[in-house]
Amino acid sequence: MFEDLLASVRDHPIAWLALQILLLILAVLVSYLITRTLLVRILSRAARVTGTRFDDAILGPGVIPRLAQVVPALVVYYGSTLLPSIPNAVLPALRRGVSIYLVLAITTAIMSLLTAIGAAYERYDPQRARVHPIKSYLQLGKIIVGLVAAIFVAAALFDRDPLLILSGLGAMTAVLMLIFKDTIQSFVAGLQISANDMLRVGDWIEMPQVKADGHAIDLSLHTVKVQNMDNSITSIPTWRLFSESFRNWRGMFDSGARLIQRALVLDQTSIHFLGAEEWEGLRRFALIDEHLAHKRAEFVMAADLDPVNVRRSTNAGMFRVYVRAYLRAHPHVRQDMPIQVRQLQPAPSGLPLEVYCYTATDWQRYETVQAEIFEHLLSILPEFGLRVFQQPSMEPKARPRSRLDTEPV
Fold it and tell me: Taking every annotated instance into account, which residue ranges of this chain make up the domain Mechanosensitive ion channel MscS C-terminal (predicted)?
C-alpha cells in the first residue's frame, strides 16, 4: 500500500517535489536537534575536564545554537543535490544562499564566542580586567572576522574564488587604509595605553579640551566613555588619549590622600611688628607655646636695643607658625605627608598665605575638612591683628540710627 501511495505521488510532480522538500526539512530539524544535543554534552564535559573558567565561555548564550546551525546548513547544501525534482536553474541559487547562510552562522557563532570570552574575563577576574581590559582586542577580532566573512559572502554571491577577491582587495590597500585609519590609530593607541598602564576602567581623568572630567566607565577599540560629575557621558576617541595630554587621578586614590592647596589673601596694611602687649596676648595659644618660648628669649634680650636694629617677630609670621601647628594637630590631616604654609608673591590684592596639606580622598570628607580648616583660620585671624583682603562691597551701607528712630514724635 505504501508503494502504491509513493507511486501515485511520483505521478504528480508538484506533490513529489513537496514530499522531497518536506523530507529535507525533517532531516534539517533532526540534524539540528542532534547536533545541538551533542555539542552541549561534549563541550560541557570538556569544560568540566579542563577546569579552566574560559572554557565556560563556549557554553555562553548564542554560541552553541549558532554552531548547531552549521550541520543543518550542510544537510541542505548536499541534500539538495539528491532531490531530482528541483529544477537545475534553482539549484545553484539555492546552494549559494545556503553557503551565505553557512558563513553567517559561523561568523555570528565566533562573534558570540568573543563576547562570551570578554564577559567571562570580566566576571572571573575583575581586578585584572580593570587593569588590563581586552575589550578593544575583542572588538578588533570581530572586525577581522566580519571582513573575512564579507569576503566569503561576496565569493559565494558572485560564484568566485575567495583568493581572487583577496587579490583584488590587495590593490585597494591605500583605500582600505584610508577607510580604517581611525580603527588602526585607535588600535595602536589602545596597545600603547595598555602597555604603559595609562588608563583603567574606574580611573578619574580630566581632559579639558574635550570637556571630560569624571570616571572612565568603558574602554573600547574606538572610544573611551567618561561619566562626568554631572552624570553626562563624554565619548573620547581612543587615539586622542595617546596623542594628547590628560590628567589621571589614580595616584591620588592609590595613595589614599588628596591635596588641599588654597590661599588666604592677607591685607598687607594689617601686617606689623609685635609689641609687648601682643606678646602677652599670644600666650593664650597653646599650639605655639614652644615657639613663643624660643622667640620670647630673643625679644627680652633685644628689649634695651633700638627696635630698628634687631630682628623682630611680626603678627603675620606668628600666624604662619600657628597655622602650621594647627595643621600638625588636626586629626584629619595626613601627618605622614608634606605639610607646608608659605607666602606667595605679594600682589595688589594682598599677600597670599598658601596652605598645603593632605587629607582623605573621599569627596565629602575632603570638602568638609578643607572648609573646617579655612573657617577656623578666618575666625582666628583677627586675634593676630590681621585682616583678610576683600573687595569693597557695592551694597549701600546701613544709615546710622538716631533718636528719631527710637523716640515717638
Answer: 308-386
Helix (H) or strand (E) run with residue 129 in it:
helix 126-131
Q: Is residue 337 exposed (0-12), middle (13-18) or buried (19+ Cβ within 10 Å)? A: middle
Look up the CATH number of domain 198-250. Answer: 2.30.30.60
Helical residues (DSSP H) of 224-288, grouped into ranges:
238-243, 250-255, 276-282
Q: Where in the chain is the domain with CATH 2.30.30.60?
A: 198-250
Nearest to 243 by CA among 177, 190, 202, 197: 190
Q: Where in the chain is the domain with CATH 3.30.70?
A: 256-384
Per DSSP, the residues of 21-53 read HHHHHHHHHHHHHHHHHHHHHHHHHHHHHH--G
Residue ranges of the chain with per-residue pLDDT less than 70: 1-20, 40, 43-62, 80-90, 131, 166-177, 296-311, 393-409
Q: Residue 400's pLDDT is what? A: 45
Residue 70 parent element (H or E)? helix 70-79
pTM: 0.56
Does the 256-384 domain belong in CATH 1.10.287? no
For position 372, what pLDDT does the model report?
94
CB burial of residue 304 (10 Å; 0-12, 13-18, 19+): exposed
All cell numbers assigned to 1: 500500500
| Residue 230 burial (C-beta neighbours within 10 Å; 0-12, 13-18, 19+) | exposed
pLDDT at 409: 35
Contact 116, 98 (CB under 8 A): no
Distances (CA, A) of 271 to 8, 312, 385, 390: 119, 13, 8, 15
pLDDT of residue 338: 92
SS3 content of the chain, % helix, strand, coil (to 5): 60, 15, 25
In angstroms, the CA 165 to CA 156 distance is 11
pLDDT of res. 401 = 47
Angle at 271 between CA 267 and CA 274, to 5 degrees: 155
For residue 235, what are the β-bridge partners? 225
Cβ 72 vs Cβ 31: under 8 Å: yes
